[in-house]
Each structure stands twice: as C-alpha cells, then as structure tokens.
Amino acid sequence: MGHFDPYDDNGGTVAAIAGQDYVLIASDSRLSTGSTILSRFTPKIYPLSKVTVFACAGFHGDVLTLVKQLEIRMKLYVHEHGEEMSTKAMMALLLPTLYGRRFFPYYVRPIVAGLDREGRGLVASYDPIGTPEFFDYVIQGSAENLVHPFLNNQIGAKKTLSDVPIQAPPELTLEKAVKLLKDSFLAAAERDVYTGDTVTLMAITAKGTETTEYQLRRD
Amino acid sequence: MFRNQYDNDVTVWSPQGRLHQIEYAMEAVKQGSAVVGMKNATHAVVAAVKRTPSELASYQKKIFAIDEHCGVGIAGLTADARNINNFLQTECLNHRYAFSRPMPLNRLVGTLGNKMQVTTQQESGRPYGVGLLMIGFDHKGPHLIQIDPSANHYECKGMSIGARSQSARTYLEKHLDEYLGAQSVEDLVRHALRALRDTLANDQELSSKLISVAVVGKDHPFQVYDDEVVQELISVVVKEPRAAVRPAQSGFALDADLMEDDDTNRPPPPEPGVSVATAVDQHGRTEAGYSPSG
Amino acid sequence: MAKRYDINSALLRDLPLINGSHSSAVGQPKAHTQSPSVSGTAVIGVAFKGGIVLAADTVGSYGTLCKLRTIPRLLRVNKSTVLAMSGDYADFQYIEQLIAKKTMQDFCSDDGYEWTPKSLHSWLTRILYNARSKFDPLWNSYVVGGLEDGVPYLGGLTMLGISYTAPYMATGFGRFIAQPFLADQLEKNPEMDEAAAREVAIHSLRLLYYRNRESSNKYQLTVVTKDGSVLEPIKEFEGVWDTALMIRGYD
C-alpha cells in the first residue's frame, strides 16, 4: 500500500541582514523537488507592506498558503487601523500563525525582515512551529548550514582569530552587506544543489525599496 | 409620522401591495448626511458630508475602503454600515484568496443584495437602515452602484443619497455630460464637491473637516483623500457662486437620467404616500435628539 | 469491495489498489486514495512570443498496462485559457467537472468575467492544496497556459499544491527527459515563434516516446495566441528507430 506524504522539500535559501538604517533580504529562485528542478524563476520573497518583507524556504505549497494568510491579515489590519502593520507586529503575528498549526505544521523556514517605525532594520527567523529568533542577520533553507558560519565570521565576529576587521552592525554599511550576501549565495550555489539560478536582493531604506537580481550557477 | 395597521411587521403587505417597514428603512437613509458619487470613462469618485454629534466629538466616518478596487460611501445608520462593510471586505478577500484577482463589482453587489434581501422577508430582525454608494473599478471599467435598504441596487452614472440629496441629483442631472466626459480626476472631484455643496444648508460651506472624498479607477487603487488634498480642491469650488434655487426635496432618490441604460436596472416610479419628514440640523441632531445616522 | 480481476493479475502484482480494497473495510478507518490508478504521463508546456503551446500524448496507463490509448489529457477552458494534466485520470475528470460548473456559473452571470490562466492556476492550487491537507489528495500535476491580459502565462502545479510559473515546463517523467531539452532550446532561441515552439513541444514528446514506456506517439496539442485557443485533433508521429540498432552496452 502506498503511503501518501503531504510534505515536500522544495529547497532554496533565504537570508536577511538588518542594518542601522536599512534591511537587506535575499532569496534564490530555484524551486526543486527531489533531484529535479520545477522552476528556475521562483524567488521565494514576498513584500507584505512598504517596509516589511517575508521570505520563506521549505515546502512551497505551505509557503504560498502562509503568504496568502499573512497578506489577508495585513489587509484586515489596514481596514481596521487605517495604516499598515508594523514590522514588529508582523513578526509577532507570525508566531501564533505557525504555532496554530502545531500538530500539522507548515513545513516552512520563514524570515520576516523590515524597518521599524524609526527606520532601523529588523530581522527575525522562525522554525516551522513558530519559535522566533531575532538577530542582526539570519539565513534559512537548504544552504543555511553552509552560509551561517560565513556570516557568523564576517558579521557576528564569532571565534575570529584573524586580524581582518569585522564590520558588525551598526557599523556594517548597506554596500558591504550586499557584497556579503552576494558572496554567501555564490558560495552556497557552489556546494548546495538546491540553491541556484538567480538571486533577488531587496534593500529597504527610508527612501524606499530597491530590488536587484544577479545570476548564480544554473547546474 | 404616518402610521397604519400594515406597518407593524416587515412581512405584512399593505392592501396597496407595499411593505411599509421597508419604506421606513429607506427613510433612515435620508436621515444620514449626503453622499455623492459619479464616474467618467476611467474613474469613479464618491464624496460625503461628515457630521459630528458635538463640538467635542470627532466626525463620523462616511467613506470606507472595501478592497484595493472598491469602497463605499454611506448614508444612514453607521453601525449597520460597519456590518455590511465587514461582509463586503470578507467577500473580496475570499475571492482574491481563491482567484488571485479582484472580485467583479456586480458579483460583490449581488452577494450583498442576497444578504440584504433576507432581512426584508423575515419577521425577526429588521432591514438594514443604511444606503450605500459603492464605487469601484473592475474588468468592465469604473462603476457606481447605489444600494438601498430594500436590497435593490442600481448601476448609476451619478447619484446622491442622504439628507437634502435631491439638490445634488439636480446638479448631477444638469451636468451629466460634463462629468461623464471629464478629462481628469480633479475635474471629477470638483463636480462631486459642487454637487455636495448644493446639499449643504445656506449657512454651511465646504471645508476639509466636513468633507470626505475617495477615488478609484484605472491604475488607481481606492483611496480616501486626506484633508490637505481635499482642501486644495475645495478652495477652488468655494470661490464659485452657489446654486441660487434649490428644488424641494422629493420622496425617492430615483432619477432615470442618472441610471445606466439598462431597463432591468430601472426602478419603478415612486408612488406618492408615506414620507417621513424630520428636521435635521447641521450636526445631525433631529428635533427629537441626536440621531445615530452618519 | 470488488477486486480487480478484469486484467492479468500478474501485471497488477505490484500495483497498489485504491481505497482500501485490500482490506474488508469493516471496522477499518476511512481510507483515501493513496495512489493513482489510470494515469497519464508527462505533459509539456512552452511559452513563445505571443502565446503558449501545451502538448501531451493520449495514453491512459493502468500500472504498466497501456489500458486506454486515446484519451485527451488537454482541456480547452476558453479562448484565453487551456489546461494539461498528468496523473490520475479520474481525478482529472472530477476537476473537469468543477471547472465546467464554474464556467457555467460565469456564463450565467453574463458579465464577461471568465477564467484567465492566472485565475485558473490560483484556484486549482487551492483545490489541490486543500485536498492534500485533508489527506485526500487529487493525484495530478497540471500545466495551465494561456494569455493573461495579452501576455503569455504558463503555470505549473503539483498534487501537493506547489505552484510556480516558468517559460517552459514538463511534468512527471518529462521533468527528467524533456525539461533539459526545453531549457536548452529556449536558451538558444529565447524569442521563439509559434512554429518553433510547436516543433520543440512535439520533439519533447518524441524524446519521451523513445524512453518512457508509459508514453505513445499519439499526441495532442493546444495553442493559445491572440487569435484564441485551439485544441487540435489527435495526431501521430512516426518513431525513428534506426539508431536503436546502434545502442550497445547500455541495456
């Protein structure tokens, strides 16, 4: 008798860095199932408001459903309060949204990134049942184990013996952060078969959102 | 106030074939301050007069967003309107959830009509005491739809409901071609403000505190304009002379010229008969006391 | 529950039966479909300049048995929208009925509002995702194609509710055999016209025909351009087996 598995892992990597006056979010665009690629054109990055972005790796069916739910909650909030939900509020909302499915979880690795009311960068990552982690930089998805140590070294200054000057927030500039994330994804694509094709980078500052794309290896 | 033995219950017909409770509900719309709506080839606007129960209180909200592509202006019981808005918002969200695109206006109004009709046919409860002017933009272009407590809805070119709205309808009929052919949104809003101005008492004048305006159209999500933007347009309109003669208020807000050319949409001619005349001052206070109508 | 003795049971030895037909069902929990029965194999979708083409062969397989040789797996929804299916044929027929019902409701509304590829893609995603969430999956992959506001749209969808868009796609076995070929062709010729896209789609089916035992050389195409959508009659291509003689050492 065949066994039906309601889950799939569609791979992909998402990452974010919070700066003093910016937040930077990135996602690759590969969607795979097993050893095959479903799409090379699916960045897993979803703007929820002018200053808040959601990015999510994991099972894409759950990702799409979760995004639709968050979009609806954002809209209802606007109807009720006459303004968009703050990044902090969205971070708070995601926890019960995920934990509400504790016993049939959304198989997702989400990131919420955005600016707070004062224009400072905020990022949070969650496990599939909603445990949040707030940090200056987060990475989730198939290449997180590859890239996390790199970011720890470059931003978090963990266990660094070298005399390379570390630029941790708040000193870390947007330009440097962009370079770090680009390197992260280039490195990830070298070693992780589920990460590749293109990277979409969104930089949110008080001035607005700037989205750029660049190529990764496609094999 | 007229009363007779056939108006105790919404489910009881009068021998003339009328449902008096529904007609009374229609009168509740006229207790609310005026709302004006109109459209041109690409956009629809709605504008409303706001009221406050006292100098110490804020102005009652008159225009509500439903979704990115539509919203309503209301006249009558604000609390009833909130219930209806909630329903409309949920319908639009559900449609977007399933189909990833905005709900067509005719279908949205159809579901609302079904909901409102139920209240006109069961003895428990009462009909809604609010009239709506819904504006929106969908695959068929801009829309303006009037919705009554009777659960009737009419697709309109221009329309006004609420207190002293006959004056606005007179303006809308007279300037039909001008706003239908309006080249800019600003022109359209100016027409709405002029029509609305005609509903004001002689000692009142348009002001950004008093007026609420919303626009929706092609590549223009529904947006309620804030005080500063409205003030700019108002300042132009208030310099113009006011309409000299204001016709008397008539019983029903049904003017064939303002309806879209669709016979199925056209309402029956008004019958003479029940009409509730209540004096309403500029702050919405009736002779009997404060009215909850917005 | 009736057992399937209608065909050679040896063929069915490894084929899982549906809906708990192994057990006597009395006192057992309700069992949902846990695997497909009559199923269609790969479908191909290619977007070109000004439209899209979908292609599928016409076999309905029952395990390894070629049970039905001429069943259409493409559906013309309206002038802007078409659908291609792989997987369980009964589930597809159920979806066909749902679509027909919605289409009729749209028609009766008489408001010019009808399916677009994007709305059908979105709606089907919800149907399949909801079914999988109830542990009662519809065992299909779909490719939705057409013109969305005049722009070519190609959307893929799996039985778990994973949906995506791409300028070319293949389902099932086609992911292994046709997709690399499609990627290569579209890279060489990104501004593909209709004729080229048709040729690429048919050649993809041909590649599948050579290596996929569930496929056949009987196939159907559907094309959407600004002139509307056409579900073409079922055709056949000839297999070229000359090279088969040269394959040595790999079998």
UniProtKB/TrEMBL annotation, chain A:
It comes from the Eukaryota. This is Proteasome subunit beta. Non-catalytic component of the proteasome, a multicatalytic proteinase complex which is characterized by its ability to cleave peptides with Arg, Phe, Tyr, Leu, and Glu adjacent to the leaving group at neutral or slightly basic pH. The proteasome has an ATP-dependent proteolytic activity. Its main location: cytoplasm. Keywords: Cytoplasm, Nucleus, Proteasome. The lineage of its organism: Eukaryota, Metazoa, Ecdysozoa, Tardigrada, Eutardigrada. The keyword Ion transport does not apply. Pfam families: Proteasome. SUPFAM superfamilies: N-terminal nucleophile aminohydrolases (Ntn hydrolases). InterPro entries: Ntn_hydrolases_N (IPR029055), Proteasome_bsu_CS (IPR016050), Proteasome_sua/b (IPR001353), Proteasome_suB-type (IPR023333). Belongs to the peptidase T1B family. GO terms for cellular component: cytoplasm; nucleus; proteasome core complex. It is found in: Cytoplasm; Nucleus. One of its GO terms (biological process) is proteolysis involved in protein catabolic process. The 26S proteasome consists of a 20S proteasome core and two 19S regulatory subunits. The 20S proteasome core is composed of 28 subunits that are arranged in four stacked rings, resulting in a barrel-shaped structure. The two end rings are each formed by seven alpha subunits, and the two central rings are each formed by seven beta subunits. The catalytic chamber with the active sites is on the inside of the barrel. Component of the proteasome complex.
UniProtKB/TrEMBL annotation, chain B:
The keyword Nucleus applies. InterPro entries: Ntn_hydrolases_N, Proteasome_alpha, Proteasome_alpha-type, Proteasome_alpha1, Proteasome_asu_N, Proteasome_sua/b. Residues 6-28 form the Proteasome alpha-type subunits domain. It is found in: Cytoplasm; Nucleus. The keyword Nucleus applies. CDD domains: proteasome_alpha_type_1 (cd03749). Residues 254-294 are annotated as: Disordered. Keywords: Cytoplasm, Nucleus, Proteasome. Its main location: cytoplasm. SMART domains: Proteasome_A_N. The 20S proteasome core is composed of 28 subunits that are arranged in four stacked rings, resulting in a barrel-shaped structure. The two end rings are each formed by seven alpha subunits, and the two central rings are each formed by seven beta subunits. The proteasome is a multicatalytic proteinase complex which is characterized by its ability to cleave peptides with Arg, Phe, Tyr, Leu, and Glu adjacent to the leaving group at neutral or slightly basic pH. The proteasome has an ATP-dependent proteolytic activity. This is Proteasome subunit alpha type. The lineage of its organism: Eukaryota, Metazoa, Ecdysozoa, Tardigrada, Eutardigrada.
Automatic annotation (TrEMBL), chain C:
It is found in: Cytoplasm; Nucleus. The keyword Cytoplasm applies. Its main location: cytoplasm. SUPFAM superfamilies: N-terminal nucleophile aminohydrolases (Ntn hydrolases). GO terms for cellular component: cytoplasm; nucleus; proteasome core complex, beta-subunit complex. GO terms for biological process: proteolysis involved in protein catabolic process. Keywords: Cytoplasm, Nucleus, Proteasome. It holds the Pfam family Proteasome. It comes from the Eukaryota. Belongs to the peptidase T1B family. Non-catalytic component of the proteasome, a multicatalytic proteinase complex which is characterized by its ability to cleave peptides with Arg, Phe, Tyr, Leu, and Glu adjacent to the leaving group at neutral or slightly basic pH. The proteasome has an ATP-dependent proteolytic activity. The 26S proteasome consists of a 20S proteasome core and two 19S regulatory subunits. The 20S proteasome core is composed of 28 subunits that are arranged in four stacked rings, resulting in a barrel-shaped structure. The two end rings are each formed by seven alpha subunits, and the two central rings are each formed by seven beta subunits. The catalytic chamber with the active sites is on the inside of the barrel. This is Proteasome subunit beta.
